[in-house]
Amino acid sequence: MASSGSPFIFATGIENSIPTIAAGKVRMDEMEKCGHYRHWRRDFDLVQEIGIRFLRYGPPLHRMLLGARRYDWSFADEVFPDLHRRNLVAIVDLCHFGLPDFLGDFQNPDFPDIFAEYARTFALRYPWLQLYTPVNEMSICALFSALYGWWNEQLHDDKAFVTALKHLVKANLLAMRAILEVRPDALFIQSESSEYFHAQSPAAIGPAETMNARRFLSLDLNYGRRVDSTMYEYLLDNGMTREEYHFFLNNNLKHHCMMGNDYYQTNEHHVAADGTTRSSGEIFGYAVITHQYYNRYRLPVMHTETNLCQGPCGDEAVRWLRKEWANVLRVRNNGVPIVGFTWYSLTDQVDWDTGLRENNGRVNALGLADLDRELRPVGQAYRELIRDWTEVLPTQSVCLQVPIALNEDYPGLDAHPSSRTQDSAVATGAPRNTE
C-alpha cells in the first residue's frame, strides 16, 4: 500500500484549538473564530492553490464526542470525503488543547479510555486515513491548563500538571493502539513544542536544568523512555504511581512514530534565579534544539509548526519562513531524517496574542492567507518554496523510507461514510456501521 517514493511532506494546518477559559464558561473554538465552519471548502481550495498536499486537520472534538460512545459525525462526514476527493492527505489531529463539556478537563481519569474508543471508531469510519496526531502538544496542554492556570482546569500546581500530563499521554498511547487495531500501517506524528531554557545567571542554573529536564517528560513517557532521576522523583512526588510509570515503559509504540517538533520565537526562555521565565527570542534556533530532541529519541523528524506575524514592513513572516526552511535543510544535511515542514496555520488566527487566555476577537496575522481567504506574502513565498523544492528533496532524502500511503493508493474507499450507518448524524453506543 505504500507509495514507491514518499514525498517530502510540505504541510499547513487548520487551527483547531478548543480550550475553555473563565472557569469553563467560554469555549475558545478557533475553527469558529477563524470562519472555517463556514468557509471550509474555500480553505481546501486555498491548500490546493498553494500546492500543498498534506494538511494537519482535526475535527472539532467538543462537537463530535457527545458522551461515552456517543458521536456526531455530521461535519466530519462532509469534510473528510471531500479531502479524499481532492487527493489531500490529512494528518488527523484528534485532540487539540480542549475536551468536550461532559469530560470537563484533563484532571478527569475517564478521558483516556473514552478518547481511545472515539479514536478507534473514527478510524473505522474513515479507513483511508493513515496519518494521525492523536493528542497535540501534550506538554504545552498540561502546562497551560494545570501549571500556568490559563485554560481548562486553570490550576497552578505540580500535582495538577503531572495529573494532566499522565492523562494526556495515556490518551495518546491508547488512541494509537486503538487506531493500529483498525489500520496496522498507521503512522503517528507527535506534534510537540521544542523548548529550551537559558540560565540568566549562575544562580539560575538549577531552575533552568530542571525545566530543561521537564521539557522532555511528555515524549519520554510517550516513547517508553526512562525519565531522568530528578524527573522520576518529581513524578512520584506529584501523584504518579509506580504502576502508572511502568504502564508508560511497557506501552512503547515508538516504531510507529515520527517526532514532530514545533518551533516559534517564543520557544526559548530566559530563567531567573527565582525560577521565573521570560521569552528570550531565538538564540539556538530550530536546528540546534531539534538535534537535542533527535539525539534523545532517534526518530524521523518533522517540523510540524511555525509562524510569525506579518508586521509593519510586510516581509517579516517571509523572512521567518526562509530562516526556518534554512534550519530544516541544515538538520537534513547533518544526517537527521527530516521528513516534512509545516507553516501553521493556513489562515490568520484569533486571540493567540494572549495565548487564548482572553476572548477579545483580535485577529493575528499569522496565516498563509488572511481571514478573507486572500494569500499573504508568506503564502505566496511558501507556494514558490514548494514548487522549487518538491522535485529535489525526494531524490536525495531519507524520507523515501517513510511508508506513506497516498489517497490514490488506498483501494478501500466505498460510499460516503454516512451511508454505512443507520444514524445519519449521531451514533449512540456501539456504532452500527462497525459491528
UniProtKB/TrEMBL annotation:
Tell whether Nucleus is among the UniProt keywords. Answer: no
Q: Does the keyword Membrane apply?
A: no
Q: Which UniProt keywords apply?
A: Hydrolase
Where are the annotated segments for Disordered? 413-435
* One function term, GO molecular function aspect: hydrolase activity, hydrolyzing O-glycosyl compounds
Composition bias (Polar residues) maps to 418-435
Domain of life where this protein originates: Bacteria
- An example of a Gene Ontology BP annotation on this entry? carbohydrate metabolic process
One Pfam entry name: Glyco_hydro_1
Question: What protein does this entry describe?
Answer: Glycoside hydrolase family 1 protein
What organism is recorded for this protein? Massilia litorea
